[in-house]
């Protein structure tokens, strides 16, 4: 049975959406002596992944590492087939951002049976133990969002627009919200919905429903990512409430940063992509040389504790927008793109 078929059977039995990366040991090198690292990303269409790739390529060039990339475009079966082809090239390391954390188990097991250590990148694998994990702390993302919400709206009705239930990190994210907001008698959660596929259209519908059910009396929308925040902003705009209601987000891509500048969206969270991508390459090199990469904590997603590097994050608001934009990874955005010219952000 091929790896593709094994994943197909696993995917049919259990679906847990996540994002992961794998790295493989220094067994096979390219003809010119370079380490070969195969990279399988979950998708390609978001700006984020092009920047991750560029950062990885820059770091790899410093260390004589060759990279090969594939993009699964949200299809776990396609990803299994792509990884099977990548493993056939005898890479030293595989970096995979799995479409599905449960169905990624057979992919991880296949790599490890081939002597390839695995690094999970930006999400966990639940059905097989990886060798290393690189992620942001999604609990802290939730904490940052909730703290900013209380600054903007210390009392009133709150609406929660959550992401897809299949996302592995969703419980930790929600716990971050709850640990800040629970017990605050000035806050009342009047709306709480998950959003299949993180759809901006569905998020807009959620926001409209929350507003209608509460006669537009919503003080804050706790929104898990920027694409859904964009839908929420549209709902507020249609009711002349743009900029008057707190809206959180996560990812801090250029369209969102423009919304923060205008005041339509209150905040987002930026993850240091320079650290993300470069840490993955450094970890791959370490594992290839039978070493444990530097890490801050151990994380268990169900298959055993894994050494984990936590990537820095920062809350992005109108107050620190210029400074954060100037510090972002090359290719992510620029002051000119966000501010419309060089004079507003020097």
Automatic annotation (TrEMBL):
It comes from the Bacteria. Keywords: Signal. The keyword Signal applies. Pfam families: Peripla_BP_4. InterPro entries: Bact_Solute-Bind_Prot2, Peripla_BP_I, SBP_2_dom. Residues 1-28 form the signal peptide. One of its GO terms (cellular component) is outer membrane-bounded periplasmic space. It is found in: Periplasm. Belongs to the bacterial solute-binding protein 2 family. This is Sugar ABC transporter substrate-binding protein. It comes from Microvirga tunisiensis.
């Amino acid at each position: 049975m091929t790896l593709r078929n094994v994943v197909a059977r696993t995917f049919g039995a259990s679906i847990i959406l996540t994002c992961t990366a794998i790295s493989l040991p220094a067994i096979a090198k390219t003809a010119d002596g370079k380490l070969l690292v195969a990279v399988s990303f979950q998708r390609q269409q978001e700006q984020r992944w092009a920047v991750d790739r560029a950062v990885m390529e820059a770091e790899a060039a410093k260390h004589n590492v060759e990279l090969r990339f594939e993009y699964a475009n949200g299809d776990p079966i396609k990803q299994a087939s792509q990884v099977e082809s990548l493993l056939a090239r005898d890479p030293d390391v595989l970096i995979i951002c799995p479409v599905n954390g449960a169905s990624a188990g057979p992919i991880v097991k296949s790599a490890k049976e081939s002597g390839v250590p695995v690094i999970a990148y930006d999400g966990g694998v639940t059905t097989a133990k990886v060798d290393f994990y690189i992620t942001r702390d999604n609990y802290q993302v939730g904490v940052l969002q909730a703290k900013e919400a209380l600054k903007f709206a210390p009392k009133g009705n709150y609406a929660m627009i959550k992401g897809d239930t299949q996302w592995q990190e969703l419980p930790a994210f929600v716990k971050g919200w709850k640990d800040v907001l629970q017990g605050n008698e000035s806050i009342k959660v009047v709306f709480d919905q998950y959003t299949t596929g993180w759809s901006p259209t569905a998020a807009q519908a959620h926001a409209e429903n929350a507003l209608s059910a509460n006669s537009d009396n919503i003080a804050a929308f706790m929104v898990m990512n920027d694409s859904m925040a964009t839908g929420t902003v549209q709902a507020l705009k249609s009711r002349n409430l743009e900029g008057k209601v707190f809206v959180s987000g996560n990812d801090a891509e250029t369209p969102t940063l423009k919304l923060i500048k205008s005041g339509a969206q209150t905040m987002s969270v930026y993850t240091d992509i320079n650290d993300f991508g470069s840490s993955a390459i450094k970890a791959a090199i370490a594992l290839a040389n039978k070493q444990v990469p530097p890490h801050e904590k151990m994380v268990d997603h169900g298959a055993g504790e894994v050494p984990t590097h936590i990537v820095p994050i920062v809350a992005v608001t109108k107050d620190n927008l210029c400074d954060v934009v100037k510090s972002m990874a090359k290719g992510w955005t620029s002051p000119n793109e966000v501010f419309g010219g060089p004079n507003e952000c020097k």
